Amino acid sequence: MIAPPDRTPLPRTFFDRPVLEVAPDLLGRILVRSTPDGPIALRLTEVEAYDGQNDPGSHAYRGRTARNAVMFGPPGHVYVYFTYGMWHCMNLVCGPEGRASAVLLRAGEVVEGAELARKRRLSARNDKELAKGPARLATALGIDRALDGTDACAPDETPLRILTGTPVPSDQVRSGPRTGVSGEGGDGDLHPWRYWVADDPTVSPYRAHVPRRRRG
């Protein structure tokens, strides 16, 4: 008999570690989004690590800005950014305060509140696609910049929380190059910092970076 997932919230000490330790350890954990219409919960199946000023693929590589300020704050907070003028993506801040690093949440399996997620993701062909990709995950959970800076480890009620869930055994974790990252940051030999659950149908397909063409 398979034991049910642990619903205990992860403590701040979980996130107060190097990002390359936290990222694979997030697989199998449960992200809960509380909304006025009810909760939505998903099991994390794919993530990417970004190591701040040591990482050319990170938003914090060139230092602190108004956009990435949350990454320099305490661990366990949520960093949300807006991309391509259309999509939001959610990250969890790791490591000690002042040293920017974060884990991008790329994909997950909706395990509670699927009916609410479906209303936000009308183009999904099935429930496996509800949160298959970072923008889809954020859309399914109703995440936007208003949640930037949210403390996912707050002792009081919070709109986002990470539960212990059921950690994925190391022999079921795969790693490789990060999706859509250009230059050195996208080199899978130097930065094999995308982690996913082997053979899980909710994991997004890998896509290499393709330079955007200017309109002539």
UniProtKB/TrEMBL annotation:
Annotated stretches, region: Disordered: 165-194
EC class name: hydrolase
Matching CDD domains: AAG
Keywords: DNA damage, DNA repair, Glycosidase, Hydrolase
Domain of life: Bacteria
GO molecular function, one term: hydrolase activity, acting on glycosyl bonds
Keyword check for NAD: no
NCBIfam families: 3mg, PRK00802.1-3
UniProt record similarity statement: Belongs to the DNA glycosylase MPG family.
HAMAP family: 3MGH
Name of the protein this chain belongs to: Putative 3-methyladenine DNA glycosylase
Protein species of origin: Streptomyces lavenduligriseus
